[in-house]
Specification:
Layout lengths: L1 H30 L4 H27 L7 H7 L6 H13 L3 E3 L4 E3 L5 H9 L4
Antiparallel strand pairs: 1-2
């Protein structure tokens, strides 16, 4: 019984701390010129970018060819996205070392094999 009471008090304390942090964060954002509408716009944009990234990633991972040009990729995507959004997704994938961009186009290089990861960890660097 005592432990339950302690847990409830701890939970209430943590919730109060989170609320205070949220209020302070909101005040700081408002001081920097962020409004509720602007904040919601940023959240919406990040959701769209995330959706586009997943779309591009899945396409490149499952494509039949080994190399594809950017124009061809944009044309063949199931959902139409702007060139700017596509380029952002491509840059994100390149930063994550999942693709390589060369003169001939884009190639998927990321390997999710657990066996390969284990061999790399055990291997000796030359």
């Amino acid at each position: 019984m005592k432990t339950t009471t302690k847990l409830i008090k701890n939970k209430e304390k943590i919730l109060k701390e989170i609320e205070e942090f949220a209020k302070e964060s909101r005040k700081q954002l408002e001081a920097r010129g962020f409004t509720e509408a602007r904040f919601m716009k940023i959240i919406k944009r990040s959701r769209i970018e995330s959706k586009n990234l997943e779309l591009v990633e899945e396409f490149l991972k499952n494509m039949d060819e080994s190399v594809i040009k950017l124009k061809e990729l944009k044309r063949r995507l199931s959902e139409k996205i702007s060139y700017k959004e596509l380029k952002t997704s491509i840059n994100d994938l390149e930063e994550d070392n999942k693709i390589v961009m060369g003169k001939k186009g884009i190639t998927w290089v990321y390997n999710e094999s657990k066996k390969l990861k284990t061999l790399i960890k055990k291997g000796t660097e030359i």
